[in-house]
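Posting this for the archive.
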Amino acid sequence: MLSLCAPLAAALEIVPFSAEALAQAQRADAPIALHFHSKSCGTCRLQAKAFEAMRADTGLALTLLVVDFDEDRETSRAFRVMAPGALIVLRGSVERARLLGVVEPERLRAALRSAL
């Protein structure tokens, strides 16, 4: 079971998207982020590398759900994401940040922190 409560999480947790994990975080008003990723997207690979490096950052106690942009069109449409490489950061159901095509680790980290 995913631990989506920020106070219990030690650092950034990266997991595949599931509607259940998103709903659970939203019900708990927890910080959560969605990374719309495509295997063929160079920007997405750079973002994924930056997120992996952030896993040990204890200041980022939240979950990053990786949405397969190529396969999960329903979620992409629901969040109005038209291209891979998007990052949407939420606190519960409230959108705190939205980035598209950003690969700079500090800008990504700042967006993630906006939900804490």
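The first strand starts at residue 13 and ends at 16. The chain has one domain: 13-113.
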